[in-house]
UniProtKB/TrEMBL annotation:
Organism of origin: Chungangia koreensis
Domain of life: Bacteria
UniProtKB keywords: Membrane, Transmembrane, Transmembrane helix
Ranges that cross the membrane: 12-30, 42-62, 74-93, 99-123, 195-215, 221-240
Presence of the UniProt keyword Transmembrane helix in the record: yes
Protein known as: Beta-carotene 15,15'-monooxygenase
Amino acid sequence: MVALKDRNYKPLLLSILTLVITSNILLYRSPLSSWILTPETSGVVIGSLIDFSIIVPFLILALTRNKGFTLKRFVTWMVIGIIAARFIIPMDYFKPFTFIPYVAIAAEALLVLAEIGLIFLLVRRLPAIITATKQHDLGALFAFPQVVEEKVRSHPLIKIVAAEGLMLYYAFGSWKQTAPNGEDVLTLHKKTSMVAFYVMLIHAIVIETIGFHWWLHEKSLVLSLVLLILNVYSVVYILGDIQAVRLNPMIVRDGKLHVSLGLGKRMTIPVEAIDSIDWGKDAENVNLKDKNLIAFMAQDFETPKPDCVIHLKESLEATLFMGMRKSYGKVALKVDDPNQLKRLLI
């Protein structure tokens, strides 16, 4: 039903958005503009400013509501709309309102400063966050973002900073750590070629960086530096991802299934939230491209097949790259010991 509503309303919203923008452009930039408008037509200009600062942002947020409705996104689109109005409306009519773009930009700057303040708050509370993370039963991959959210707040920028902090920790600060073990712990990568695949990928990036960087350096210094930074980031991320997989096996404990696959995705599933489980051939026949399914299967040189697919009673949130969250109703799993997984879940 939700998908049907989206299909019905998106074309209508897009049509209204196009009509609002086009009508304003024709009003000020058509051959008939001089007949319709006069220098004293301030009421029409106010209406256009309302269109671009309120109506257009609301329509854009409605069209992209899957990304969430936040004050930051609204103010950003409002500033863009007002700047666009400044270029569409001729200066003869816009002159009494020249202060408005500066007010809008100032509002955006205040929001940016507020976000920077959140980062400073995160840095200030970092010692307490690290202490609380170490006391947590689960590893840093699950505990650190949760503690950050509790001690700072849930904000997209804070989630990104926390995700980058996790990457740096696993890439550089976790090599002396040992992976947990026990009857309730299952690994996902030991019987796959995931680590070998990642090592090959690192070698390819390093070789490409050495060769292509020096060639591009003679052509464009800026592009060569950008490419170098991206390649270094990629290598650091892959190193962190390998460590995150190695140090965070799947754990079934206290009635919850904690499963992750590197830095890119993790999920906590209460056992009572499981509706049914497909095993063996039934699991292999499930469509892994289903948008409602998330797969925790380590990268291999061959296409892996799931050992089981968990069907949930209702969709649960998973944390993805850069702290983004998305809900799924099915979970595909491939572990090194399927029989142990079956004993823990049945």
